[in-house]
């Protein structure tokens, strides 16, 4: 079968035309043929669109469940990213590898957490997905949920014993990234669940330092209310949250630190 058959296969997979697909399969079409240099198969195309019936039919007729695109994406990863939980179920029921990952190490539960696809996250966790799975930079599902502000996902992961203090390769914890990205509700959730407000990255930056640097006044207030040290310095420049807020021009943060945290400049961290 040539180009025409390939087009028919991908058209039927992309449009969820199971009648046409059955006809093509009966004629002996190779369901694992790829389209272009991207290495996309009909299974990838159907998973992307959330076409569960097409996915099931392809799998029942020899589609390679863990086949990856040129970018290293398996159908499970694609479906998890798009939030297609029924497709995720079909893929796993047909033997899909729950820990299949891209070249950067990102698994299905990592991408589902990053995208806020809570039902997919719950299903994958229920099937035994590794909650501490991480990319090559060691960012876990909880880290990504915190970074993107997906509170329901984060709460579920924490309730499922995900490590609160698991950090990225530079030592950034979920609390730190939530503070840096301006996610006040997430910060509250993480603190309430026991996150360490005094934890610091390899460069000495704490959640308070990062919030102050980014001008996140509400988060600065939250962290101070929960005992964050206003005078903790980074290890690169030796400056405090107050100093970095001043350097970055965040006047309201500076005022709050001076008025409510007794923060101060010292001879080693004066703004020049």
UniProtKB/TrEMBL annotation:
ANK repeat placement: 38-70, 71-103, 104-136, 137-169, 170-202, 203-235, 237-258
Keywords, in A-Z order: ANK repeat, Repeat
PANTHER family attached to this UniProt entry: ANKYRIN REPEAT DOMAIN-CONTAINING PROTEIN 29-LIKE, ANKYRIN REPEAT DOMAIN-CONTAINING PROTEIN 39-RELATED
Name of the protein described by the UniProt record: Uncharacterized protein
Species name: Aphanomyces astaci (Crayfish plague agent)
